[in-house]
């Protein structure tokens, strides 16, 4: 039976304001792609990201441009050849996975051999702010075992000191979102090491990170904006210690699985992360993240309203998705 596709733009309020070094937002803007064969429905969600030149209209148009090929039954592997990595391909790819699972009765977890599924400890993200405000955020979440702290400004040492003192028992990931420079990275890395930081994400701008090969890594450094697909990895060997895999960057679960496996082959540790989206966007990532060293799938925890049914979060643990949600 011919597939039918629908594309919808949706907005979900963020609980408060989410701030990183590039700006702030108060709602999560997502695109939902739904595929139906008449009896079964599969769906996927993506988050267009301005950092990569994506807009809500542009991503929706990119999905609509694939309507004929999708409704004619394009496969996930063929999709990799005709669409670039990014949010639009992610929404289609995840919808195809979900539809295939519904049609076949084989769960996605089984199809990708994600055996022994378990709940995962996810980081919880603290927004960028003045040190005192960030300390208050950290203090309120000091019970969580893993915090991800947005930094990337001129006063990062004070921020690091503030959050580590406010949450002394939490492991902490720093996410600079490309906000450091050649002039301050060595001192910032040393200060982070002195304060027991577990990991630092993307301290320098993508494409301007060559110096990472020639400086000490007293704290492991994780590529985020510098890595999208498996083909990016070899150039990062010696620069980074870990890679952050996000479905909206890789262009779906199909490509993300290849990226994860190749990263392992090259000796990188793996983080599975997310944009700020709903449980529908997190669901395939929870399957991908089984066995990852770091998990950052807290998107729904940052929202004022999530989809129902959503993922089950208990404290800092997120459980694999129920098939009523996805997969």
TrEMBL record:
What SMART domains does its record include?
MR_MLE
| Keywords, comma-separated and alphabetical | Isomerase, Magnesium, Metal-binding
Taxonomic superkingdom: Bacteria
- Pinpoint the Mandelate racemase/muconate lactonizing enzyme C-terminal domain residues: 131-222
Query: What binding details are noted for the cofactor?
Result: Binds 1 Mg(2+) ion per subunit.
Lineage, opening ranks: Bacteria, Pseudomonadati, Pseudomonadota, Alphaproteobacteria, Hyphomicrobiales
Q: Which family does it belong to?
A: Belongs to the mandelate racemase/muconate lactonizing enzyme family.
| Leading EC class | isomerase
Question: What is the designated name of this protein?
Answer: Dipeptide epimerase
Q: Which cofactor does it need?
A: Mg(2+)
Species this chain originates from: Mesorhizobium caraganae
Could you tell me the EC number(s) of this protein? 5.1.1.-
């Amino acid at each position: 039976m011919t597939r039918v596709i629908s594309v919808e733009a949706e907005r979900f309020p963020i609980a408060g304001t989410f701030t990183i070094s590039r700006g702030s937002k108060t709602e999560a803007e997502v695109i939902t792609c739904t595929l139906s064969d008449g009896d079964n429905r599969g769906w996927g969600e993506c988050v267009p990201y301005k950092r990569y030149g994506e807009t809500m209209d542009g991503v929706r148009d990119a999905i609509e441009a694939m309507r004929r090929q999708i409704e004619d039954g394009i496969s996930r592997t063929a999709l990799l050849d005709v669409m670039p990595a990014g949010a639009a391909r992610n929404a289609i790819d995840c919808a195809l996975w979900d539809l295939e699972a519904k049609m076949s009765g084989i769960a996605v977890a089984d199809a990708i051999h994600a055996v022994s599924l378990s709940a995962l400890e996810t980081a919880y993200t603290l927004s960028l702010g003045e040190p005192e405000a960030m300390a208050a955020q950290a203090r309120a979440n000091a019970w969580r075992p893993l915090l991800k702290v947005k930094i990337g400004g001129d006063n990062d040492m004070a921020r690091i000191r503030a959050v580590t003192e406010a949450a002394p028992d939490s492991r902490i990931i720093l996410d600079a979102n490309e906000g450091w420079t050649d002039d301050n990275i060595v001192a910032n890395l040393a200060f982070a090491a002195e304060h027991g930081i577990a990991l630092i994400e993307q301290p320098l701008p993508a494409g301007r990170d060559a110096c990472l090969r020639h400086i000490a890594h007293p704290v492991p450094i994780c590529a985020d904006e510098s890595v999208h697909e498996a083909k990016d990895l070899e150039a990062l060997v010696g620069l980074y210690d870990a890679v952050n895999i996000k479905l909206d960057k890789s262009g779906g679960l199909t490509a993300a699985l290849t990226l994860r496996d190749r990263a392992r082959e090259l000796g990188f540790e793996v983080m599975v992360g997310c944009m700020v989206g709903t449980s529908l966007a997190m669901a395939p990532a929870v399957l991908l993240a089984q066995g990852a060293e770091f998990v950052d799938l807290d998107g729904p925890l940052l929202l004022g309203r999530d989809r129902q049914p959503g993922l089950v979060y208990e404290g800092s643990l997120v459980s694999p998705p129920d098939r009523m949600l996805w997969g």
